[in-house]
Amino acid sequence: MHRPLVITEDRDLLDDLVRVAAAAGAQLDVAHAPAHARPFWNLAPLVVIGGDLADAMAATSPPARDGVLLVTRDPEDPDSWRRCVAVGAQAVIDLPSGERRLVEEFADAMEPDPRSGVVLCVIGGRGGVGASVLSACLALRASGDRLRTLLIDADPLGGGIDALLGQEEATGARWGDLVAREGRVGSAALQAALPAFGDLTVLSFHRGEVRAIPAQAMRSVLEAGRRGFDVVVVDLPRHLDPAAIEALTRASGTLLVATADVRGVLAAAQVLTEVNRHTSDIRAVIRPGILDDDVVASSLGIPSAGHLPDQPRLPTTLNRGELPKLGPRTVLGALCTSLLRDLLPP
């Protein structure tokens, strides 16, 4: 993989750039003269030109390209924007005030094979309806189809989706570790830090003290998830907190799990009122009850995405730390396959 290119003779500026790049986990190629930059110009994922060599670089008429930044340590320099245009840069970044943005630019440049993952949210119409189980099974089915999948536990009081999968002892980071780290999360770093099982990566909570997820932390994880995964499944709490709202605003589709009885529909309608404020594509997954599925969907005013029948052996299977069988001939596997087919782009 090619590295970002820095073009400068200013040693103090170079020291700053090396430090900022290290914060993003990036190593640099450095050119101290425009001629030295020529072999790297078209190959580097990002080109950072120091203000000291901008005019000299412009004089060589380098080919136009994206991902060129002009960096200066003198924010009062009136010629900065003239140099920016002359060299074909897309922006001027002043140091030290622009360090955070430059860290993000270096980190973006180092992302391998960026993807455009789809975010799917699952929420229960009432407690114990099976939303977490459906979230886990969707993620397992997607990863079984060789889709790189991230399963996010967004419910601090849910008991841990890693425990539901029988993987509570798995080595890797949890939410508390990510929240302690401020700023942007790289997709490669996220994948390396979290517990993974084949194509499935899981982000859950530590046991013990319960702490809400800051909205910024959820935003960073979701952005990294979309860059590094094909599918991101988020298991939401019924009482929406700022982190859950962040997930809903980025969701391509949301599944509301509702029980087909009067109380279940009334509870799901209350949840739906809140969810509707933050996302638009909401579909019902209906559990068995005394009402017909079409009555439930009509009462909620959203389309039915599928019927989730009772699975008497499923709780025992999960409590033994075993994963459910989700082949296409199983009821649960067929449902998840149908849901993914409807929710994911062709």
The CATH C-level class name of the largest domain: Alpha Beta
- Roughly what fraction of the amino acids lie in strands? 15-25%
The largest sheet is: 8 strands, mixed
As for the CATH topology of the largest domain, it is: Rossmann fold
Query: In what order do the strands lie side by side in the largest sheet?
Result: 8-9-7-10-6-11-12-13
- Helix-strand pattern, N to C? EHEHEHEHEHEHEHHHEEHEHEHEHEHH
InterPro entries: Cellulose_synthase_operon_BcsQ, ParA/MinD_ATPase, Rv3660c, Rv3660c_N
Organism: Nonomuraea guangzhouensis
Domain Rv3660c-like CheY-like N-terminal: 7-115
Protein name: Septum site-determining protein Ssd
Give a verbal description of the structure.
This is Septum site-determining protein Ssd. This protein is an alpha/beta fold. The chain has 2 domains: 5-109, Rossmann fold, CATH 3.40.50.2300; 118-343, Rossmann fold, CATH 3.40.50. The chain has 15 helices and 13 strands. The protein is elongated.
List keywords for this structure.
Septum site-determining protein Ssd; Rossmann fold; 346 residues; 39% helix; Rv3660c_N; eight-stranded mixed β-sheet; alpha/beta; Cellulose_synthase_operon_BcsQ; ParA/MinD_ATPase; 15 helices; single chain
